[in-house]
Amino acid sequence: MASRTLLFLVLVLAGRPVELVAQTTHQLEFASTPVDNPLKGLVPYATAEVERFPHSLEFDYLPFSALVGGENEYDWQPLENLLNTSAERGCQVVFRIYLEYPGRTGCIPKYLLDQGLTVHRYLNTNTQPEPPQPIETPDYEDLKLRKSLQQFIAALGKRYDGDPRIGFITAGLLGTWGEWHTYPRDELFASQAVQNEVMSAYEAAFKITPVLLRYPAGPEHESLAPNAQRNFGYHDDSFAWATLDTGKQNDDWFFVPALQQAGIAAVEKWKTAPIGGEIRPEAWGKVFDAKPGKKQIQNFEKCVRTTHASWLMDSGLYEQKTSPERYRRAIEQVRLLGYDFHVPQVTLGPLTGKQLPVSVHLENRGVAPFYYDWPVEFGFISSGRVVETLPSTGKITGLLPGDPVRIWTQSLDVQSLPAGKYRLALRVVNPLPQGKPLRFANAAQDADAAGWLTLGEIDIP
Length: 461
What we know:
Helix content: 10-25%
Number of helices: 10
Radius of gyration: 26 Å
Strand order of the largest sheet: 3-6-9-10-11-12
Distance between the termini: 20 Å
Protein name: DUF4832 domain-containing protein
Strand content: 25-35%
Order of helices and strands: HEEEHEEHEHEEHEHEEHHEHEHEEEEEEE
CATH architecture of the largest domain: Alpha-Beta Barrel
Largest sheet: 6 strands, parallel
Domain DUF4832: 233-434
Organism: Planctomicrobium piriforme
Pfam families: DUF4832
CATH topology of the largest domain: TIM Barrel
Oligomer: single chain
């Protein structure tokens, strides 16, 4: 009793009489996360019926000519319109710039044509399931075009690297749809020298916003410049159709065999750079059915777990209303994409003086890490309102599925809080104003305030 009295007196003499609050450890219950957690899930076109399925990312293409009017002359308004429209819906954008697109003309800036850029016009037959379409392929070896591409990428990065409205960029610019091929006219595609120029320009211009390439390539690839050692992710645009290894020689261009051929750096790329893509149009919607109906459609869950994909473009669930059963199955399977953070345990206290020790255990139950260094913060909730926030030193980047639990330990200064009962909560801050919150896989998510995970109750004397 004497020792307790002495300790109380010490606290009083220190300037603030504070009762000791015992240390408490809570086990937090798991619960499934929403499928529209930020920077993951299905990605509709920004012009689609976007409310038909939950999402946090939207996609669109833009022609090179819409942004480039002359040498170092840029009109960013078309891109601004896209970014702002999606941001108003709380969504980040994935976009791609192209120079050639089947059935479209005027994609090449007029000033380059006036300077003598050669253009190959022919019927592109690689347009399934749509009929063949005419296309205009520029001479990618043209020095003025090469200079224009490098200058454009530098200007794009200077203006948009780290812009919170952007989720990911697919490199585009080269080949049909910006997909880094001109099949079946392979002889018209950019040389490895041009590819290297474009990749080097992107690496120099973008240090924050991830850029994704269409195809993995190692040093032995016959037409693609090696990229496995570069700082890019990949996007599989024939997902669940030409993804898994079939063992057939004619299928060696499929995504997983291509990763394996490119080497271990490509196979493990997902650990540091995102994997995205597009569900093959022939599989739109059907891929989520118990019986997809087409033998070429590959198992969606196996494709996701094998590639560690975070996001996938899709139109099948947005073009028309889907059946309740397909919708239900899609929710379950789309939830598998990307990260999935769960807090299994938290320890609070003991409160001593003005310091509240906090220990948060974090695990990733998803298939991929989170690729942005978004800030984390604690909040004190009273009567359903967050009355105080404090920055957390915790990081969510680099936590891989299967890694040991990551423990954030921090002491919070509660000197400014009036005496009373509070709920301590945690959130990851989406830098997009009014962007969709990152929700944890916990039953206590949003329990006391929207966007916050409640960790426990504290009583400040």
